[in-house]
Every structure is written in C-alpha cells, then in structure tokens.
Amino acid sequence: MRRTSLFFSIVILGLSISHAAAQTSAEPEAGKEPSAHAQPSADTQSSTSTEPSDNEQPSAQEMPSQRENGTTSSNPISTVQWLSQLQRVISSANFQVTFVQTIAGKETVPYLWRHGILEDGTEVEQLSLQNGPGRELIRINDVVSVFEPDVQPYSLHSNHINGPIPSALVYHPEELLEAYEFVPVGRARVAGRPAQQIRIVSRDNTRFGYQLWLDEQSGMLLKLNMLDLQGALLEQIQVTAFAINPEPSDYFSRINPSSLPKPMAMGTSQTREHSWDIGYMPAGMREIKQDTRRLALTGQVVEYKLLSDGLVDVSVYVQPAEDALGGDLALRNELSTFLTLTDGKAQVTIVGEIPLQTAKAIATSLGPKTVN
Fold this sequence. Notes:
Number of strands: 19
Strand content: 35-45%
Helix content: 10-25%
Strand order of the largest sheet: 6-5-4-3-2-1-11-10-9-8-7
Order of helices and strands: HHEEEEEEHEEEEEEEEEEEEHE
Largest sheet: 11 strands, antiparallel
Number of helices: 4
Distance between the termini: 41 Å
Shape: globular
C-alpha cells in the first residue's frame, strides 16, 4: 500500500504541473492590493458592487423574455438561446460577480470575478479567492498571469481564465451538445432574482449531471450544481451578488501591463508511438492530447492520453505491468475518481470527475494498438 500511495502522489503531482494554468487561483485578502503587478495608487481597491434589486435593470442587453414564464407571448426562449446569452454577457459585459464554491464535506470558498472591455477594446479579467494568503489570476486579452504564495509569478497564453466555473459552459456551450442534453425546467428564484433553470444531462448517463440557473434579465449565471448519478449534490457554485456596469471596474485601470510576467514558452513533451488504444469513450468524449511522460520521482515512463467532452477531462496513464507500483486501487478524492487496474500486460490509471463505473469501462476497454 505504501508503494501504491507513492504512485498516487506521483500521478497527482504530474497532473498538478500539467494543468497549472487551469487551476483555481485567488487574490490577496480584502483591502490588500497585489504589489507585484498593480500600479501604485493612493486609492483603495474599487468598492464592491451590490447585487441589483428586482427593480434595477442591468446594463447588458436584456433577454427578450421578461414576461411570465420567461417567454414572450409568441416566441419561447430555448435553452440554446439562454446559453448563448450567458456566453454574450460573460464575453462582452463589464461585470463584477461574487460567488461561493461548496464541495460536499469541505469549507465554503468565496471568490471575486471581474471582467471588462477597455476603451481601446482590450479584454481584461480577474479571478481571486477571498480567503487565504493571496492568490489571483489576471487576464489581458490572451495572456493569463498567475500570482500565488511562495511561487514565482508566471504567465500563459489562454483566451480565458479557468476556475471553479467550467469554461466550456460559459464560453462555448454549443460544444457540449454532442455529449449533453440541455433540458428546460422553468422559472425559479435565486439570490432574490427571477431565474431560468436548466438541467444538463449526460446523453448516455455515464457522467455526472448539472443544474444551472440563469438570471432572466441579463443571462448571468446565478447558481450551478453538480450531481452524482443518484442525484446527490457534489458541488455547488452560488452567486451572492453581481453587477453589470457601463464601465469596467477601476481595478483594471491600476494594472500595469509592463509589470506582468512574460508568457512562458511551453516545452514539448517526450513523445513516442503508443502501443495501445482506447476502445470505449462516453458519448461526445474524444482524445485531445497524447504524449509520453517520465515520472519525476521514479524515472518510469508512462503513456498518457487526455480525454475531454468539453465539460469533463479524464487522464489515462498506462505502463507495463512489470513496472507497476502496487495493485488495483479505486478512490474518490473530493469530486475525482482515481482508479488503477492491472492485467497481465499493463497497469492502467484513470483520473477524472466521472463515476467509478465509467472509469472502469474506459480502463477495461484498452487493447493493443491496431496497425493500419
């Protein structure tokens, strides 16, 4: 078991390094200005925007569905249209959102999320955690800069910040239609505002489900639940306040772009021809990356594939059975499943936010690579 635990730690370490740009990050505690990247200013950080009351109208384009039941009298608004409105407001509006993330059995974590379009057309974004010593991500157009304690600041090329809210859902919802069905539920009330509820259901029942609530006036996300196959709550994103404003937050005017770290040059991974293929993947899931990796602590070489349906990523590692550390193992770590299976020729490890039975189906489908 000690050797199995070592392999688990190695794999998780590798995942953390390979997905560093996608990890959730946060800003210094309230009242502190990040000194590494902001221009000196005598002003304090821009005051928090309060949630609009039911009588206020956000400045973003309003949905054409402000009448009873969330529809106009002749043209009901489809789930695709609601998601398109979410995409528009996230991409083009000047907004400030505070939300909390709650994972079953863990402490609730508060976030601040800002977005803006400057006068010259520059797109800016910030995501920061409101607890802890101070971590945050800042995006200017297609460069994301990451600031966290005890780590040298760095920048990566990306068109959006990845955080607790799935980026594909808010930026590219149309890409999820092959894997998921969007089911309209009806009107509800969230954070004191009328909302439209939508269920997101895996088309083949192999992945977790979601419940989504969008503000009727603006299309802004108000609440997002992740549910297991039995309907139990795994994770919740709850917006506590938001404001859509004519101008971007004053915070962005204090950022000094020249002080941000230059984007990193990403090195190429070690590659070699894989000797195996995946015979089964859930509907809408496909292979988006393949390489060969050497585990830092042991020097072992493993073949690696990254699978994704746009909403969920699954990592698959394979190594010869004679090199395996430990035996079969199945764990749930918060939302993720960690599964290791060994047959006569190979050890397969699956890591991802998927049900255990789905991980087993992927692992047991691996076979020798066919030669065309």
